[in-house]
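Practice problem: predict the structure.
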Amino acid sequence: MRRLTPAITSGITVAGLAAGAWALGGGVAAADPVPPGTYDGSTDVPGGELIWEGKTFGEGTVSNNFVFGFNGLPGTTTYEDGETIIDYTPSGLGFLQDRITEGPDGVYNGTVYVYDRQVAEFGLTPVETDPAETID
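Answer:
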C-alpha cells in the first residue's frame, strides 16, 4: 500500500476540495443523473468556499467554478447505481473521483475520493436563472 506524507495528504485534500463533494450519509436512493446546468457549491471544509464556488455540468462533462470567474478542473461524468460519477482523468488527476446523489430537498450531495479514500464533502444547489435572461 502506498504511504502518503501529511503534506501530500493536505495537498490532495485541497485538490479534492476543488473537485468538490458532500458525504452521502445513509442509503443511496435511485435518482436521475445531475442535469446540465450551473450549481452553487457549499462545503464543510474550512476555507473551501473562499476558492471553490460550484460546478457546471454538460452532457457527460463537468467543470469546477472558482472565484474570479475561473472555470477549470474538467472531468467526465457517468451514471451508475443511482450516482453521478465524476472522473478527473482529463485534468491529469485520475486518482480523484466525485460521487454525487440527489438529496430529498433537491440539493445534490456527493463525496470526493482520492485513491478510493473519502477526503472531502460538499453540496450543490441549482442556480436559478431568470427566464427573461434565457437566450433561445
